[in-house]
Amino acid sequence: MIPGYMTIKEASEKWGLSNRWINTMCHSGKIVGAQKLGTVWAIPEDTTKPTEDGRVKTGAYKDWRKRYGKTSK
Predict the structure, then answer these.
(1) How many Cα atoms within 13 Å fall on the side-chain side of residue 23?
(2) What is the pLDDT of residues 42-66, one digit of tens each?
(3) How many domains does one find in the chain?
(4) Is the pTM of this model over 0.85?
(5) Is residue 70 in some structural domain?
(6) If residue 28 lies in a helix (H) or strand (E), which one and from where to where?
(7) Taking the CA of residue 69 as centre, how many other CA atoms within 13 Å lie in the half-sphere pointing to its CB?
(8) What is the domain range of residue 11?
(9) CB-count burial class (<10 Å; 0-12, 13-18, 19+) for 55
(10) What is the mean pLDDT of residues 3-9?
(11) Considering the domain boundaries, does residue 66 fall inside one?
(12) What DSSP element (H or E) covers 36?
């Protein structure tokens, strides 16, 4: 790999995330400085682990059908 950059596999080991999730974040532009070289993503080594992924983890949507009177068919 290019000096100063890491692969998706190296990033997944460093950050504790799956290869597929890092690939998705690179593709959507959530990892700053990530560049695609052919079929391989190059991620700068000094990039920090992305923290905001847009998912709701608080349980705010748990049982939303019951709260809003929705019924499943």
Answers:
(1) 6
(2) 999 999 988 766 666 777 777 777 7
(3) 1
(4) no
(5) no
(6) helix 19-28
(7) 0
(8) 1-47
(9) exposed
(10) 95
(11) no
(12) strand 35-37
